[in-house]
Amino acid sequence: MLRYQFHSQTHVGRVRENNEDAVAFDAVGQLALLADGMGGYSAGEVAASMAIGLIQADLSRHLSPVRPGNGSRELRQALTTAVHNANASIWSCAASQPNCRGMGTTLVAAVFLDASVLVAHVGDSRCYRWRAGELVRLTRDHSVVQEQIDAGLVTLEEAPFAPNRNLVTRALGVMDTVEVDLAEHPVGADDVYLLCSDGLTDMLTDEAIATALADLNPLAQRAQRLVDAANAAGGRDNVSVLLVQAVAAT
Fold it and tell me: Among 1, 120, 160, 241, fewest CB within 10 Å belongs to which?
């Protein structure tokens, strides 16, 4: 059996006036959520907050510390449905309220079972796994620059400087339907999972992120180190991190 420890941190950064990221976790239900809003003014904040609040509320009745053997299948459907419902609500709000027109948000969500994790994402917010000295990205960005990388038009080294690096190809609330990527990954004791906005990954390389996670310090200190490093590198955007560590139950 595994138990999970959670810690989140968000910062406005060094350039933006508002923080359009939203982060939440439910330690009892073993749920982690992070969203990065877009749309300018306060609309991005609205979209991100709506996504987190609606999905957390939608999933609440499906989450518990102990899940039946078929919990993975049921949770896959519940998580997918919750994301689609949130998309519809954000889309409706954007269409009906002039001050919210054009808003949307990325999303990365993780539901932890006993020995696996369900990861759902839309956009370019990411989920990483740190295990035995190796950092692995579990999500693939839905972005213009990722498509350019896949097509061989941009290298990984050039990607951080690409002119369209912040344009996403999928987001909640920008269309009446959305495609969600959902995958299940095995979890081992001492794994650390990082959910983050692009305010972190635009500022830091994967190597720098790995260095911060390699410490055996408590999650709060590792999260602070990541946020401080992103701000030291320029802090051009809001930066949010959510860390989850798997611990062998005693």
Answer: 1
Listed in sequence order, the residues at least 6 apart from 38 whose beta carbon sits closer than 8 Å to its beta carbon are 20, 44, 47, 103, 104, 105, 106, 168, 171
The second-level CATH assignment, the architecture, of 2-248 is: 4-Layer Sandwich (3.60)
Tens digit of pLDDT for each residue in 132-186?
999 999 999 998 988 888 888 888 777 777 777 778 999 999 999 999 999 999 9
Per residue, what are the HEC states of 27-53? CCCCEEEEEEEECCCCHHHHHHHHHHH
Residue in 122, 153, 152, 118 with CA at minimum distance from that of residue 140 = 122
Q: How confident is the model at residue 69 (pLDDT cuts 50, 70, 90)?
A: very low
- Name the residue ranges covered by the structural domains of the chain: 2-248
